[in-house]
């Protein structure tokens, strides 16, 4: 039973298209995150939600829009995809009152824009 | 500016050859330092949290230590299954508990 699950695992799409990535966690955590990992393996925070409220919104193009329908789900919608959006996107979750246990990450979505 | 630097970028060890990975940080008020392991094609997996200088944590062949400026991940008598990328992250003192990750050390342990 996967703790943090992301779909799809792979996504190949053309420039200009709109796509979504879904994330669900069954750990009962109250905080969820989206991270982007570039080709050099650098992980950078994009967004974070705590109990459906946006708490971190880094300098990300407004083509990226997160949505959290409930605290177990955090989706990422990307409009007008560009070549530079190609990366691996990771969803993660944590319990805000127990940050000593770190984050639980999903297995990632590899996005390739052609 | 808050920064995390990991060294070396890559490390090849023979099975049984102990070594250390370094994570240097500059953060105004450390709230926590975290070590993760990442296998190819997978998300990072949490290993340790360290909060204050002098603190140490151990798990099997791994031992993490923390000073005021850096953390070390010591690997004792590594095995091929320890091959992975090891990531260090610091938690900033902002109210949003944001992580800043280093770029990782790719470890390869040869049999």
Description:
The complex is a heterodimer of chains A (114) and B (111). Chain A has 114 residues and is an all-beta fold. Helices cover 0% and strands 55% of the residues of chain A. Chain A is built from no helices and eleven strands. Chain A has strands at residues 4-7, 10-13, 19-25, 31-37, 43-50, 53-57, 64-70, 73-78, 87-94, 104-105, 109-113. In chain A, the strands form two sheets. In chain A, strands 2, 4, 5, 6, 9, 10 and 11 form a seven-stranded mixed sheet that branches. With 111 residues, chain B is mainly β. Helix content of chain B is 0%, strand content 57%. Chain B has strands at 3-7, 10-14, 19-26, 32-38, 45-50, 56-59, 62-66, 70-75, 84-91, 99-101, 105-110. In chain B, strands 2, 4, 5, 9, 10 and 11 form a six-stranded mixed sheet that branches. A five-stranded antiparallel sheet of chain B has the order 1-3-8-7-6, with no helix packed on it. In chain B, β7 (62-66) and β8 (70-75) form a beta hairpin. Chain B is globular. The interface between A and B is medium-sized, with 23 and 23 residues.
Describe the structure in brief.
The complex is a heterodimer of chains A (114) and B (111). Chain A has 114 residues and is an all-beta fold. Chain A has no helices and 11 strands.
